[in-house]
Amino acid sequence: MSKRIFSGIQPTHHLHLGNYLGAVRNWVKLQADFECIFCVVDLHALTVPQDPAALLKATREVAATYIAAGIDPEKNILFNQSAVPTHATLGWLLGCLTPLGWLNRMTQFKEKAGKQRDNAGLGLYSYPVLMAADILLYHATHVPVGEDQKQHLELARDIAGAFNRQFGEEFFPLPEPQIFGAATRVMSLRDGSKKMSKSDESDYSRLNVTDDADTIALKIKKAKTDIHPMPESVEGLDGRPEAANLLNIYAALSDKPLAEVIGAYAGKEFSVFKRDLSDLTVAVMGPMSERLNQLMADPAELDRILARGAERAQEIATPVLNKTYDLMGL
Ligand code: ADP
Ligand code: NA
């Protein structure tokens, strides 16, 4: 059986350096060895309130970011989730097989719903079932997942197993996590104990793929550090999460080992390192944001790319849904 990847990101806010280094950059590498389906998961975005115009724009922008980062929409399938209604249909079928107890264990729902559990939407609660449908609909064999999605992928495997036992042995392959050698976890520029996130209220906490060179330089200049000079060794990063984060970003963007970067700046002033980090970030992200702007200037072309991707996705999804119907007696 051929190896097939499914992955997606929600179209909420701009993508940031964490999304790039932790996800999209790795997807670019996967294109060579896998059949890849990259989705803009707009149905998932609806699990929290969205402004319709902003959602539509963000959907195009995430698609444009994928392409600007180097994902080829001809070689791979690139589309937005709502354009293939089969996702929601399979989500319903799988939801009927999913015990509430499994969903009650999901830590992300507990975090996102907080104390307002009764006010959280049903969609936020059943989100992992829709995510299982996204993956199983294409008989995806591998899913690149960050730490935060591991539990949801486990659930997708459990749901596939439950379906197979009840309706047909091995109809849905159990998707495997696709792990990357050095998974980069990018932390907030304002607080080294929090990950860089789309939902952080401070825009200074993250480097967006849409930021221009001046904005990048300003955000890095303002990034939190401490009073000590640059560390002399990897051990010297203990208890210095902000320094560790900036050095890790440098290492990831330059494709150099962390120890080598630390060696190059040992004992120097932070301001010197920060200036170099700005230049490096601009060198990597600048061409990407330029390409992103070009793509966003032609929304009709982006819509055509997404529509063509949706057609190709639907060609795979329809027979899988039909077979699922047959197996379930529909
Ligand atoms: P979504 O809500 O669409 O999943 P996220 O921003 O939470 O959006 O994550 C999208 C992808 O980017 C996931 O694969 C996630 O692991 C990765 N990601 C998000 N934030 C970071 C970060 N700070 N560092 C590394 N990877 C990240
Ligand atoms: Na997430």
UniProtKB/TrEMBL annotation:
Superkingdom per UniProt: Bacteria
Chain ranges for the short sequence motif 'KMSKS' region as given in the UniProt record: 195-199
Pfam families per record: tRNA-synt_1b
Entry binding sites for ATP: Q10, P11, T12, G18, N19, G146, E147, D148, V186, K195, M196, S197, K198, S199
Entry annotated with the keyword DNA-binding: no
GO function terms (MF aspect): ATP binding; tryptophan-tRNA ligase activity
Biological process (GO), any one: tryptophanyl-tRNA aminoacylation
Subcellular location: Cytoplasm
Chief localisation class: cytoplasm
Chain positions recorded as L-tryptophan binding sites: D134
Gene Ontology cellular component terms for the protein in this record: cytosol
Keyword Endoplasmic reticulum: no
Subunit structure, as described in the record: Homodimer.
Record-given protein name: Tryptophan--tRNA ligase
Species, as recorded: Elstera cyanobacteriorum
